[in-house]
Amino acid sequence: MAKKDTSPNGLNILGRAWNELKRINWHEINRLCQQNFHIGLIGSERDVEAIKNWLISFPSQASPDQSPIRVKCDTRLLARYITPIYIRSTGDKLDEKLIKSTTFCIVSPEYVNQVRRFKTEVYIFDNIGNEHLPTQVLAAHNDMRFALAYHFPVFRREHATIVIQDTAFQNTAWTVITSMPNTVPGPHQLVSIPFEGISDCIVLSLNEMKMLFEIVGLSGYTVVPYRQLPEIGVLMGMALLAQSTATSIIGKLPTRAGMVAKGALAYAFTYAIGEAIFAYVSYQQRVNGCFFRDSIREHYEEGVKIVNNIVNHKTESF
Record's superkingdom (predicted)? Predict the structure, then answer.
């Protein structure tokens, strides 16, 4: 008699991973990364050169010794996406048609008013500090985020944070919703508890796999699943660790507290997994237990707040 498979959904881990892969449309991520756009760079030759260098810059991590080992950026192709518009003196007449043909413009401060007269979207480039500029641009161009990050490294850290936060919230919301029936004791728990474990495992894994591909794409790489096998291995290992940790902790807690802890852990673990993937793809940094532990501790309390907000919202709606 064949040995019965006792894994959550009747499949081994690799089989489940492959099934999740087939459900993700990674071609859509590649399409989003290749959308067409044009950024107008306006200022003196020196200003335009500074903006170009900023666009291809990539932030180092918190520690000075953790600078990126490699940054995926084909500078030869960037001319397709940027339009330099030089101003050599304040009296220069700007090409209105050219400016209006751009998706948006990044402009040296002294020329902002000249450009704004054309009713086009303008962002000010200040040599003193532009740390908030990627956030401003991505917030205004939700549909262009992948393309901007794919081609210009300066947008990658901010876009990765958006992707990680969105996925962490989705996983938290799902675990809270599936846990709610089990906060009320009754015979239905005989069905709902096993279903909850299986569905959580499938949905969370699917979301995390999608997050992996999105991080690969926004980091400047074409998403091809078999090329991402090392990252998939890292993700699956961490997902299994998260599952076993959550099971051991939540089983010892009262029902309501267990639901909160489960949702908060889903948020913290998903966030930690996302940061680990981004560190590996962008910095070639293999994460260790300290990285994972510190990230979970950092985001667990935020997860608790999100769970309580979801629960309170659900309670008010009934």
Answer: Bacteria
**How many CB atoms within 10 Å of residue 224?**
11
CA proximity to 162, closest of 141, 183, 184, 180: 141
**Cβ distance 265 to 242 under 8 Å?**
yes
DSSP letter at 93 equals P
pTM assigned to the model: 0.81
For helices 289-317 and 255-283, the axis angle rounded to 10 degrees is 130
d(CA 58, CA 100): 29
For residues 69 and 16, give the distance between their C-alpha atoms in angstroms, rounded to a whole number. Answer: 33
Element (H, E) at 122: strand 122-124
DSSP code for 63: S
141, 81 contact by CB (below 8 A):
no
Which pLDDT tens digit goes with each residue over 96-138? 999 999 999 999 998 998 899 998 999 999 877 788 999 999 9
The sheet that has 104-107: what strands, in order across it? 82-86, 39-43, 104-107, 122-124
Distance of CA 167 to the CA centre of its chain: 7
- What is the C-alpha separation between 279 and 40, in angstroms, rounded? 31
Q: How far apart are the C-alpha atoms of 176 and 314, rounded to whole Å?
A: 10
